Amino acid sequence: MVTKTLTCPGCGCLCDDVEIDLDRDRITQTRNACTKGSTLLYDAQNPERRTRPLVSGNEVSIDEALEAAARLLAEAKQPMIFGLDHSTLETQSLALELAKKLGAVIDDSSSYTFGSMIEKIITGVLPTCSLDEVKDNADLLLYWGADPPHTHPRHLSTFTYYAYSDYTEAGWFPKVTMSCISNCENEFTGMCRPVFIVEPGEDKLLIASILSHLNGIDSTTDATALVEMIRNASFCTIFCGVDLIRSVNNDLDAFTEMVQLLSQSTRMAVIPMIEEPNLRGFNQLLHQKTGSINDVDFTDGQIHATSLPFNERVATQPADCALIIGADPSSMLPRSMVQSLQYGAVICLDHFITPNSQAADIVIPTGLPGLESAGTAISMDGEERTLIKARDTGYISESEALKQLMEKLL
Amino acid sequence: MNDEKLHLVIVVFQDLYQPTIMQRDGVGESYERVSARLWMSPADMDRLGVRDGDCVEVHSEIATVVVRTKTFHKCKNGIGYMPPSPYSTSLTRYDWITVPMLNLRRIEATIHKTENSITPLLALLV
After folding, report:
1. Given an 8 Å threshold on Cβ–Cβ distance, is A246 in contact with B104?
2. Which residues contact A181 (CB under 8 A, 6 or more apart)?
3. Strand order in A26-31's β-sheet?
4. Which end of chain B is more exposed for a tag (fewer CB within 10 A), N or C?
5. The dihedral of CA A376, A378, A383, A387: what is its sign?
């Protein structure tokens, strides 16, 4: 029996204190992992959930699957690489190289989630901080459009509210105010005080009302109470959920102005509640290498930051070959978009069987990053974490699969 | 049969257990059971004449799906909640000119009780 400590690849928290007991490469026990993390780790050893190398539904060797994939990619005139939010930074770098080589478009799911917010954070337009800085320092935690018990089950206990070491005199509550803005009452709103309820999709009205108040114009009671709460704090961290991004229809200008105005009286920080383990890594890498956060077109080997958002590109200029790495757009995108994404040939690199792998023309099984392959990833707060290879299962890593694909393309 | 029709704004919300079930069992019966679900207020359930587990047809401007109902006691009247899955995403139309983001926050739909069974998941997958 061997015990290993690993960084959990279950969500954007990337908890680095998860322990697993291994008996001949089989997990027998996990410690510190949440439901999401432990399900992922245990599931990796369920052969019924794992992908097998397939070409047109027929089982082949991994080498044959890679050969067939290389042929399809070489023949493609308008290829696309999509996914990579569960991949290591090393895999993402290789995917970028492959995109350049193929003249492909490359993007990830942040195009329709946190892309714009991450761009504002990494370019310094929105203030941010690490989760380590939040704990014991921020005196106001404001969750906006987020429901951490369901999306990031250890977030409160490991990084924020319940991780605080200083408690009130009675010893019941941490010495920090936890508030939220939500569109319904739920388990999480029951933990927060005060709670601000907004109608679904109307967060922009609340932001407009806050801006009015900040500019000295009469506003709603909620907006006034929110501003006063933030002004009375010395360090407020806003944890933004994807519901906020969707609600404001990805237009973060008013939100940014609000945070900047509030920063004049209170230290403000914004942290996106990213669910994918390395979505932020993909955005940071792409920005560093190309200057764009999403949707880069490498036609002719040159970088073209496209003016088309991913959603529009998929709908209007579908790829004739899509290489989808560790992503399952079928579960999250409207049917019409999935149809456009799967308009041409689909090559799927994935660890698990998903609707996307079931619809793919070629399936290449890979090891689960953080358990079966090593590398690095960037957590929701921008911290780099090391992912280890804790079990040796014989699955090739995504990086190795991409390297072999590139060699076969030569 | 209650002929009452109800207009609802459907919100797609994250639920811990539904993706965990998909992770554990794949896209099978368990996933179908937890995904084909509409959470509604007790008052809206009464208006439609449905109880937990009854089937309702959900019509949006582009699709119709049959899902089971579930009471959400703190839910406001006129609002329904569905987890992210082909059942909810098939109801929303993506219009990149007017709505740059996918509309998963305000899906306008009409609901009524039905004797039909829930829509098979395979019929919704591409």
Report:
1. yes
2. A142, A143, A144, A145, A196, A197, A198, A203, A206, A226, A244
3. A2-6, A18-23, A26-31
4. N
5. negative
Length of chain A: 410
Per-position DSSP letters for A125-161, written without gaps between them: SS----HHHHTTT-SEEEEES--HHHH-TTIIIIISG
pLDDT in tens, A235-279: 999 999 999 998 998 899 999 999 999 999 999 999 999 999 999
Kindly determine whether residue A355 and residue B90, on different chains, have CB atoms separated by under 8 Å. Answer: no
What ipTM score was computed for the predicted complex, to two decimals? Answer: 0.91
Q: Give residue B115's identity as a one-letter amino acid code.
A: E
- Token pair 């639920």 in the structure block, residue: B15
The alpha-carbon gap from A375 to the nearest alpha carbon of chain B, in Å, equals: 23
Query: Could you tell me the two tokens for A351?
Result: 């660890």
Q: Tell me whether B31 touches chain A (CB under 8 Å).
A: no
How far off is chain B from A264, nearest CA to CA, in Å? 31
B79 part of contact set with chain A, CB < 8 Å: yes
pTM of the complete model beyond 0.80: yes
Tokens of A53: 């190398």
Distance CA A387, CA A376 (A): 5
The CB density around residue B70, as the number of other CB atoms within 10 Å, is: 18
Q: Residue A373 carries which DSSP code?
A: B
Among chain A residues, the shortest Cα distance to B81 is held by: A184
Which residues in chain A are contacts of B90 at CB distance < 8 A? 334-335
The answer to whether the CB atoms of B16 and A36 lie below 8 A apart is yes
Summarised one tens digit per residue, pLDDT across range B43-95 is: 999 999 999 999 999 999 989 999 999 999 989 999 999 999 999 989 987 76
Residues 40-59 of B with CB under 8 A from A: none
- A365 strand-pairing partners: A350
Amino acid sitting at position B72 = F
* Res. A179: pLDDT tops 80: yes
Q: What is d(CA A138, CA A73) in angstroms, rounded to the nearest whole number? A: 49
Task: Report the DSSP beta bridge partners of residue A177.
Answer: A140
C-alpha to C-alpha distance for B15 and B18, rounded to whole angstroms: 6
- In angstroms, the CA B101 to CA B95 distance is 9
User: CA A309, A108, A36: angle at the middle one, nearest 5?
Assistant: 135
Give the residue among A206, A224, A113, A159 at the shortest CA–CA distance from A8.
A159
Mean local confidence (pLDDT), A279-303: 91
